[in-house]
Amino acid sequence: MAFKMRTTRPEAGNKYYITRANGGYSYAIKGSPTDSKCDVLSNCVGYAYGRFNEIGNWGYCKYLSPVNAERFMEYNNTGIPVGQVPKLGACMVWQGGATKKGSDGVGHVAIVEKVISPTEIITSESGWGSRNPFWNATRKKGNGNWGAGAGYKFLGFIYNPAVKDDDTVDNDPMAGYGYGKTNSPLVNYTKISPNKTSPRNHVIDTVTIHCVVGQCSVEALGNIFAPTSKQASSNYGIGPDGRIGMYVEEKDRSWCSSNGANDNRAITIEVASDTTSPYKVTDAAFNSLIKLLADICKRNNIKSLKWKADKNLIGHPEE
Predict the structure, then answer these.
(1) Is 18 left (phi over 0), alpha (psi -120 to 50) or beta?
(2) Among candidates 160, 162, 159, which has minimal Cα distance to 56?
């Protein structure tokens, strides 16, 4: 079987992600906030339960039980093999808190979409309360917790019976773009900042633009981002003369928007500007910005960008 990665949110009408009450296959509860297209989202349980069965294309939800995430292992009543080695299509299970009573956390589940190595994978996920009903993430084994926070404990993988050990990914859209495989050829100056997180953990699917509030050159901006005490950076910067600087490679997350989730998925750009409202930029800087945006979108397969002058929507390109 040729395994097909899921790198986009479930399509409207996909019954694996719709409750039975609304004509779907899923026994999971509705997500929160409830997605208008697939009502088990946003919820890690509803997503993982649907995705695990969608991979097998059974025509119904044959495997797993949509209980609290941390109890997926013990409700594996069909005896599917489990283990600690990542495999395609497997369901990852984390316990939340010290008990499994639900009062100290209900855990998390995710689906393995690509195995890069025994210690690095790409997953597809959702989450209760998330304004974004779907995302991909790169997870590293690290101390054995696969990138989860201190309040979580990794329990293991539930292996998907529809996927064989020798199956391979035949539609890997992340092989050439989306995770910062390349940087812009338009760069005129490079000074890599130590203020970054390497690598980013989300596919690149948006751009965040910010005014410097100062008509500083790309060299001056590089000096601003150089000290570790500054705790700030951006992927790119544009000076008043239109020259483009790079301070954090696209494969890495910059520290730009004060929103870690956004910076993991966005290419961030600082543009030299006036110091007072309306923070005007030069024609040269604006023209370079347009060219840089077109280049970023082309290399990362971003189909379109929509301008949103609302800071509350940072990190939510789907809204």
Answers:
(1) beta
(2) 162
Radius of gyration of the chain (CA): 21
pTM value surpassing 0.70: no
Q: By C-alpha distance, which of 272, 273, 221 is closest to 248?
A: 221
The domain that holds 206 is classified in CATH as 3.40.80.10
Q: Which residues pair with 4 in a beta bridge?
A: none
Number of domains observed in the structure of the chain:
2
Number of Cβ within 10 Å of residue 186's Cβ equals 16
Q: 318 Cβ partners below 8 Å, 6+ apart?
A: 9, 132
Domain that residue 27 falls in: 2-169
**Is residue 159 domain-shared with residue 221, that is, in the same domain?**
no
User: What would the pLDDT profile of 171-225 be if each residue is shown by its tens digit?
Assistant: 555 554 456 678 999 999 999 999 999 888 888 989 999 999 999 999 999 999 9
Helix, strand, or coil (residue 7): coil
